[in-house]
Amino acid sequence: MKKFVSLALVCLMAFGFVGCKGKKNQGDDVVCGGWGIPEKLTESSLDENLAATFAAACKKTKKNLTPQALLGTQVVSGTNYAFLCKDKKGKPAIAIVYEGFDSSAEIISVKELDVVGYAGKDTAPERLSGGWTIGESVKANKIALDAENALRIASGTQNKINYEPIALLGQQVVAGMNYLILCKGTANAEGAVPALYILRIYNALDGSAEITSSTILDIADFRD
Which of 2, 180, 196, 205 is deepest in the core (most CB within 10 A)? Predict the structure, then answer.
């Protein structure tokens, strides 16, 4: 009986190693069984190979998308890549690209990033105003200086999570300004696993800033 159990365990371990074959970017922070988040989430994360993979996938599936940043990788029977991109109207979306072991690539899912939905409702009188400006501000590693400063000031009031900006998704004129920023966030604790966050930041007229909403962006939600 013991020999049978030992043999079964060996088989399970072997199966596990075989099932995890695939490419992973060096330096990725990986959640076991889930998506790995690249160490750097900017335009620089889109190297020539990834750009070529994305272009080939768009051509195959006839999608008109512009990649902005690589948000994550997932080892499957091949590799899944999650890209922040712009659709043909300039609105933010997340595209999931599958690349097989033979280097063939295809887009298996594209979903618009609902900026207004993530922004949520703010009931504070000084922060109520018109709609959100979305689209033209979405460009990884090109976040506007005023939005970056607002994030720095707002995140400086807490020491729980370290936020790194990825892209400015939208902005809203109020008595001051609201910004919606996609970030990589890592808790200030040993062994903490990073996650993707969408932060709504209010930048008041006096220059103060605060995080008024924080939502974790789960790449799995963008799979069909």
Answer: 180
